[in-house]
Amino acid sequence: MKSSWTLKEHSEGVLEVVVDGDVWTKAQKHAFQYFKKNITMKGFRPGQVPEALLKKQISKEAIYEQAVENIANTVLAQAVKEQNLELVARPTLDYKDATDESVTLEFHCVVEPEVTLGDYKGLDIHKDEVEVTDEDVDKELERVQDRYADWVLREEGEAAVEGDQVIIDFVGKKDGEAFEGGSGENYPLELGSQSFIPGFEDQLIGVKSGEVKDVNVTFPEDYQAKDLAGQDAVFTVTVHDIKYKERPEVNDELIKQLKRDGVETVEKFKEVTKEDLTKERERQAEDKFTSEVIKAASDNATVDIPAVMIENEVDNEYQQFVQRMQQSGFTVEQYYQATGQTEEDMKAQMRPEATDRVKNSLVLQAIVKAENIEVSQEDVDKEYNEMSELYKMDVNQIKQLLPAYQVRADLAQQKALELIKTSVK
């Protein structure tokens, strides 16, 4: 068996393999036996048709085609290893020059693209400083007050202010016609919550109970219902009750209602809250820093990403979206009906971020090679053990789901990312 690789544009190429000798001879024999076992002829039981008669019925081309099918996977694996290729999609197969002595297989492949690295060390990027103030903690206390607040009915004639809850009926119309999903009755809307279309809540500040008011809005350009996106509409709003929020006093009794272990006083709440906010903001700062450094390294690199890699990433993300919908008790069809979107709309939205993820991964792989980053077996075993503890699964079960080569590759990319981060100016 002899192989050759010809790289063309966009990481596509042809892997040509000449198969001859015993390999090709045996493949033809196995192909003939396949036909012998499966062909039926009148007067003969299955598998008992004489070979001389079969040879008259089966064309050489049929034998060659079946023989190629029989050996294609094995030949591909050997040739890919011989040429040291990294395939990113299943190749398509043609064959030519088939004779009893040899055949030439042509695998049309898409391989991992070459990455030209730019600057990735010494980047001028810094992690944000984290600070949690007393005012930040006080806002968390206000949220606790809001959680246990009572809504108290305003007296007749009192106007609604921001933060009030208005109980309303509303009917939305576009071009004078009511549209689906634009109506509601006895809806409790907190003014300032930004839960309605931008501009809707602002226009209800100052209304009084019993008032009927037309609210003019423009739907956002990216509104989920396409027929309403960017369109003007008028909502006729009938105001029923107006309520204001009566917050409880901040004291130890209020904190005890949270039923948090070890947190029973206002002072302890403030202490724990400050620690929690600090940890969360540090995590956010670290995530932002990580995102910025990999984006910079990726932007500085040049790579022609094959379309199939991006589409594979989009398909993976879409399947995860479908699973999340199912776990929530909905179908994608219900989601599309509610939002007016389609599968193609969803995938189009996913494609830009999918492209970034693919490029980031390719750049990190290139850095792994450039820096000769290695992952030890000890590193791999440690990762398996940590996943076992995290997911409460047996290590051997995890190994079946996630092969060692994938764990090794992921850890190598993590090391490459840490190299970028620790080398910043």
TrEMBL record:
<dbReference type="InterPro" id="IPR005215">
    <property type="entry name" value="Trig_fac"/>
</dbReference>
<dbReference type="InterPro" id="IPR037041">
    <property type="entry name" value="Trigger_fac_C_sf"/>
</dbReference>
<keyword id="KW-0697">Rotamase</keyword>
<comment type="function">
    <text>Involved in protein export. Acts as a chaperone by maintaining the newly synthesized protein in an open conformation. Functions as a peptidyl-prolyl cis-trans isomerase.</text>
</comment>
<protein>
    <recommendedName>
        <fullName>Trigger factor</fullName>
        <ecNumber>5.2.1.8</ecNumber>
    </recommendedName>
</protein>
<dbReference type="Pfam" id="PF05698">
    <property type="entry name" value="Trigger_C"/>
</dbReference>
<keyword id="KW-0132">Cell division</keyword>
<dbReference type="Pfam" id="PF05697">
    <property type="entry name" value="Trigger_N"/>
</dbReference>
<dbReference type="InterPro" id="IPR008880">
    <property type="entry name" value="Trigger_fac_C"/>
</dbReference>
<dbReference type="InterPro" id="IPR027304">
    <property type="entry name" value="Trigger_fact/SurA_dom_sf"/>
</dbReference>
<feature type="domain" description="PPIase FKBP-type">
    <location>
        <begin position="163"/>
        <end position="245"/>
    </location>
</feature>
<dbReference type="InterPro" id="IPR008881">
    <property type="entry name" value="Trigger_fac_ribosome-bd_bac"/>
</dbReference>
<dbReference type="GO" id="GO:0003755">
    <property type="term" value="F:peptidyl-prolyl cis-trans isomerase activity"/>
</dbReference>
<keyword id="KW-0131">Cell cycle</keyword>
<keyword id="KW-0143">Chaperone</keyword>
<dbReference type="InterPro" id="IPR001179">
    <property type="entry name" value="PPIase_FKBP_dom"/>
</dbReference>
<dbReference type="Pfam" id="PF00254">
    <property type="entry name" value="FKBP_C"/>
</dbReference>
<dbReference type="InterPro" id="IPR036611">
    <property type="entry name" value="Trigger_fac_ribosome-bd_sf"/>
</dbReference>
<dbReference type="InterPro" id="IPR046357">
    <property type="entry name" value="PPIase_dom_sf"/>
</dbReference>
<keyword id="KW-0963">Cytoplasm</keyword>
<keyword id="KW-0413">Isomerase</keyword>
<comment type="similarity">
    <text>Belongs to the FKBP-type PPIase family. Tig subfamily.</text>
</comment>
